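anyone seen this seq b4? input:
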Amino acid sequence: MFGNTPPKLTTDLAHLEERARETLSAEAMGYIVPSAGSGATARANRDAFDRWHIVPRMLRNGPERDLSCTILGTEMPAPVVLAPVGVQTLAHAEGELATARAATALGLTYTHSTQASYSIEAAAEASGDGSRWYQLYFPNERDLCVSFLERAKTAGYSTVVVTVDTTMLGWRPADLDRGFLPFLAGSGIANYLTDPVFKGSLAKPPDEDPAMAALRFAQVFPNPGLSWEDIAFVREHWDGPIMLKGILSAEDAKLAADNGVDGIVVSNHGGRQVDGAIAALDALPGIADAVGDRLTVLFDSGVRTGADVVKAIALGAQAVLLGRPYLYGLALEGQQGVEHVLRCLLAELDITLTGAGYTSHRELSRESLVTA
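predicted toks r here
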């Protein structure tokens, strides 16, 4: 990187999107980047980070830093998890396989999306001996849900992350104006096309009638009736940790604890679901206060820098999930691009903590920040 040899990719993760636009098709960028409606929620996510400022402390660092943590039994070298991102072959042909390999190479946890371009089993094989979680979109047919969970358990996924904010897709004009939805073209539904329950509901095998298989997916995906009873159903069929992703209300967080959930992800889906929703970072402190030590609290939506990670943890998160930035790295350089993004984020986190006077993220608190 030094010696007058610049890196292939920028180390400024906030600018990776610009480079990715030069590589990806309009359809791919139109699906990956935009948010719901006017984009107000996505803008609010970044504005919320800008309102908080780190207060550095001096003359108190030790010679060593420790970023390690354990989240719901998963040991991690740093408080960063790869968020579930669907349809990754829109960015690169190897998609989730490259991402899973990159996560394992750095010792980080990979989260496999229900809407992945590769199956539960294929991603697990790519992950090797790395830690991995499975993200569940609860379908409206329970036997299919059970099949997903059983496959994930058999394939070595340790935690299930139930996304609760996407019982149907948000209003996304960029996709609507292009008439583009990858799932209906057969992309991002590999977990369904390889599932015995799903295939058993088809008149013909998916490879013989892919259009009908895609329409069948469209029938089972929407689940606007998702309720706490469904979360209890997941608990009946999953003996590992359960997290709910998409919590923005302190009341819902307390209900999650009351209903036996192990953790939550404070998230507004990167602004992709409800236009005009509260910024996830604005919701985080109240939720963390409401649940105390009853739940493990993670965070996503808008994380772009090491300083963002510091702010989220100071406001009550135990770790963050990173999404779009690693997808841009994937688009530009495949597995190596994902690894580059992750290394940059971890290095910036380490340097930011050091400069702010901390030897570990565990020392952060509300007193570490001030508001503008």
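Residues 13-371 form a domain with the TIM Barrel fold (CATH 3.20.20.70). The chain has one domain: 13-371. kinda curious what u guys think
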